[in-house]
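In this supplementary section we document a worked example of the pipeline. Step one takes a protein sequence of length 159 as its only input; no multiple sequence alignment statistics are reported here. Step two produces a three-dimensional model, which step three serialises into structure tokens for compact storage. The input and output of this example are shown verbatim.
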Amino acid sequence: MIRLITLALLFTLLGGCASPSSIVLGSTGVELANKLGSPTDKRANPQGGEFWDYSYGPEGTETWRFTVDGGGVVRGAEQLLTHERLYKVAPGTTEAGVMELLGKPRMVTRYRHETVWDWRVRLIANTGYFMVRFGSDGRALGVSVLEDMTTDGHDRGDR
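The serialised model returned by step three reads:
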């Protein structure tokens, strides 16, 4: 009987945990916020409604963007930190363009002649950091990828 109660409590607790991939398109923004909490970033969608970003950092490797229409209905969901999106960042891309592609960076570091934004990402064999260097004009100078040597190839509960 104790095992049955323990299992029931475990399933109840696990059922309460929501992940971004569990959000159903067509649900409401209120339901989205109830499941995932407040977005990390919220901004206007030029085609109407808003984009709601959920960044799972600073050590997480996912940033999810939900498209919420003017009526408050979730119309789209996508993981932003994919290899395809990372490599769309090219020299000359503006800061706004990079933010549109990848969402908010994990960290921003300012140097004398450039600024570096970085995101923790999943690489082919490990976890690492994707960095975009910007010049004083706010345009990307280039990108770098560094493998996180402190991990053993297995994510340790990152999200």
